[in-house]
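Progress report, Aim 2. The chain analyzed during this reporting quarter is listed below.
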Amino acid sequence: MGSVRVAIIGVGNCASSLVQGIHYYRSTPANDFVPGLMHPTLGDYRVGDIEFSAAFDIDARKVGRDLSEAIFTEPNNTVRFAPVPHLGVPVQRGMTHDGLGTYLSQLISKAPGSTADITGILRDTRTHVVVNFLPVGSEMATKWYVEQVLDAGCAFVNCIPVFIAREAYWRRRFEERGLPVVGDDVKSQLGATIVHRVLTRLFMDRGVRIDRMSQLNFGGNTDFYNMLERDRLTSKKISKTDAVRSQLDHELPGEAVHIGPSDYVPWLQDRKWAHIRLEGRGFGDQPISVELKLEVWDSPNSAGVVIDAIRCCRIALDRGLKGALLAPSAYLMKAPPEQWADDLAHQRLERFIAGEE
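Predicted structure tokens for the chain:
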């Protein structure tokens, strides 16, 4: 079927893991179980069919560098698990807007010069899919980039909690242009959100009433540093909380649910610790509680999911599908247009891939 040409907005840890992963899995067998990949082949596309066409950032240390070098440039601090050859893809000067918050501005110096012609670059590089990795809270910057993506005629994967795919206005804009979008806020392969959702559903399915629950997250990457600025967290907390609450069969008061980023621990680097606790009542109203700690490398944990989202967009382009892709969004994202149970979302995603939905 050919290639999947991908542009990246924001060359941070998530971009680093994605680019490394494409090379790590480039020669994987088509149908074998491959640790780390939910779909070695998705539709007619293998991981090795993905190639990078463009990249955008504002950090003076990254702009002008080849993408293969920029992904390993500070303040990126995720694990290196694959060598990346020279890609011939220079990092172009992106738009700042609100993409640089109070804390990140202490780490990052903006590259000189004006914003590149994003739309023109996407067209000239024949980009199929654009992936958004901007920092949490980049509301205006994300919407500005979406306008460029629409003008360039590309599909869009929104990996951050700025609501695009789930908002009727933006869904309509993508439908009018005949373009697909997957979003919002990527759900890691085995992260805090999916584990918390599964535990919540387990309580419900086994007849245990949940009275209260919490999820505390700690990390040492720039994402957690950026989220020390609590004003940037509104959409993040909505995204994570709604993703879990959607699995409840009864309402819980706001004070009984606490889900969200908690603190920045520099020495954790790109590792994340998630502490999850659920308290409820079983037979005879007797107490039942579950407490769990999850530790992952944060950025690699999401890269395989993004690879699937990219390929879903590509087969949607092939099939002439437009607007929000409901099944891929429900399975791969925390804040999709429609929240489904994970087993249903999985079934419908497989039907989507097979061309049955």
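The longest strand covers residues 209-219. Residues 186 and 298 are 12 Å apart (CA to CA). These observations will guide the mutagenesis work planned for the next reporting period.
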